[in-house]
Amino acid sequence: DVRFITQGCVRLRYCLAPDTTWSLPAPHQVGFAVSRRTGKAVERNRIKRCARERYRHVRVWLDQMLNDGGHQQCIIMVQFFGSFSDIHRAVDRDVDRALHQLGRRIVRSH
């Protein structure tokens, strides 16, 4: 059951499961993808680095939300589909908002 959250230039796809469904090495797995239409590889890699940094800041909080929500595992895919000029707005605001919205949905789903 894959669900998604869209915030500005970011689409976050996620799937929640109880502890016994998957054998993941961590409470959640996260992937980052950037459309080729965004720009050259250097620009796409910079966007992914910035998105990973924003995720790193909320990772512990997201772990807590998973435990509070009764879910033990989560697979998350963060997709960026804007232009390279949107990078600062998307990373600073949209990734952060999408991950916080995911945390609230996890707690509500319990």
Verbal overview:
The protein has 110 residues and is α+β, with helices and mostly antiparallel strands. The chain contains 2 helices and 4 strands. It has a 4-stranded mixed sheet with strand order 1-2-4-3. Helix 1 (41-68) packs parallel to helix 2 (87-108). The longest helix is centred in the middle third of the chain and has 28 residues, at 41-68.
Elements, N to C (H/E): EEEHEH
Largest sheet: 4 strands, mixed
Strand content range = 25-35%
Mean pLDDT: 82
- Taken from the alpha-carbon principal axes, the silhouette is elongated
Helix-strand makeup class: alpha+beta
> What distance lies between the first and last C-alpha atoms, to the nearest angstrom?
15 Å
Total helices: the number is: 2
Main-sheet strand order equals 1-2-4-3
Helix content: 40-55%
Uncertain runs are none
Rg from C-alpha positions?
Answer: 14 Å
Total count of strands? 4
